[in-house]
Amino acid sequence: MTRGTELVDAVIDALNGISTANGFKTDPAVFRGRADGLSTGDITLPAIAIATLASTPTNPKPRTVRKDREINITGLINALPSDYEPALDELDEDITRALLPLTEIDALPGVLQIQFSGGEYAHPEGGSNMASVSYTLTVSYPLTIPKP
Length: 148
Fold this sequence. Notes:
This protein is α+β, with helices and mostly antiparallel strands. The protein has helices spanning 3-16, 85-99, and strands at residues 29-32, 47-61, 64-78, 113-122, 130-144.
């Protein structure tokens, strides 16, 4: 398995811990894939979609490069109730609470830096019944190619 896949799997594992049984406010389904183009008929809501946006190599050196992996995390809720924002707030806070432990020292061994940004709300458009909150988690790590 690649290091990039391991890191995304760690994010998925952290988000899979979100459940009311674990003290959270929501019980979302978590899946790997883009949230774009989904409808409530495609998935059970609430849900969280995880997809890599980029895996950029920077600072190349002989046999080593720094990889900056941008992971998009999108929480989705059913916005059919007229006052859906409290439900979106609950999912927003649950995602944040689940991801914060990943920013602790040595939570992801070998990682150089973790940046957590976003929290943008998207409200239903054009007859859609989904609202969402999106984050970007950028994980920087070294990728080294062993000597032959």
